[in-house]
Design brief:
about 170 residues, alpha+beta, Beta Polymerase, domain 2
């Protein structure tokens, strides 16, 4: 079973991201990756989250990544989601039940992907602690409501995330 569990913020998440990022860069062709970001709730200091480190990786070419990245990341313990309905993103999971808990996700996209805009959400929560606290309450509530349904949990956050994204887009550029 792949239960949704929300935990209090762990400052080690930053180090876990840095370590995993270095390992990923060590196994993938250096010219393939153009950028890596710590993505998702574990990238927001103080925010409760599923204890899964999300890496957002920009690659020069998704077509090339599909040819080489799967076998290389499998060596690090990642499983590739071949059935992903989004052709603009490759998705990998490290740690899958029943062989353990999820520990890392890789979202691999090209640099112009709309997924990069989601960094606005992360950055807004990093600077608006009241909003991060509201998001944490929503996540706890949804984890209780959908403890074994990742899709429903994620879908139920979408409206809130979009409302925060609207706020973030209205901020003056820094």
């Amino acid at each position: 079973m792949d239960e949704i569990v929300i935990t209090e913020y762990d400052p080690n998440w930053v180090l876990l991201f840095e370590q995993e990022s270095a390992q990923v860069q060590a196994v993938l062709d250096g010219d393939l990756i153009t950028h890596i970001e710590h993505f998702g709730s574990t990238a927001v200091p103080g925010l409760a989250a599923k204890p899964i480190i999300d890496l957002l990786i920009a690659v020069r070419s998704l077509a090339e990544a599909k040819q080489v990245a799967v076998s290389q990341l499998e060596r690090l313990g990642y499983a590739y989601w071949f059935g992903n309905p989004d052709p603009q993103r490759m998705f990998f999971v490290k740690g899958l039940p029943p062989n353990g808990s999820r520990t890392h996700h890789i979202h691999m996209v090209e640099p112009e992907s709309v997924l990069w805009k989601r960094l606005l959400f992360r950055d807004y929560l990093r600077t608006h602690l009241d909003e991060a606290a509201r998001y944490a309450r929503l996540k706890y509530h949804l984890a209780q409501r959908f403890p074994n349904d990742r899709e429903a949990y994620t879908t139920s956050k979408a409206e809130y995330i979009e409302s925060v994204m609207q706020k973030a887009r209205q901020l003056p550029a820094s």
